[in-house]
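User: Just a sanity check before I run the rest of the batch. Below are the structure tokens for the first item. I only need the designed sequence back.
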């Protein structure tokens, strides 16, 4: 009888331990969720910095003609009247 109770107790402890570690709310799942949260926080931080840079660029474009001129010169390769443009092409 004692052996049977010990065996049942061991089975119950094993079952509880299994669910504690591998269950839906177990330690393994919490570790996975912590990794996902850490990854998402890194992504959010990178996107936050990108958004700040874009907001600064929009603000510059709204406020100053110099920023618009710089954008047109670099992106569209415009030149002012009276300027000479040299393009160096490699072989």
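Assistant: Here's the designed sequence for the first item:
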């Amino acid at each position: 009888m004692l052996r049977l109770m010990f065996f049942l107790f061991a089975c119950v402890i094993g079952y509880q331990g299994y669910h504690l570690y591998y269950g839906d709310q177990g330690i393994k799942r919490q570790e996975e969720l912590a990794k996902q949260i850490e990854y998402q926080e890194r992504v959010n931080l990178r996107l936050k910095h990108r958004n700040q840079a874009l907001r600064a660029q929009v603000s510059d474009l709204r406020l100053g003609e110099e920023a618009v001129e710089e954008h047109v010169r670099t992106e569209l390769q415009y030149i002012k009247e009276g300027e000479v443009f040299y393009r160096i092409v490699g072989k």
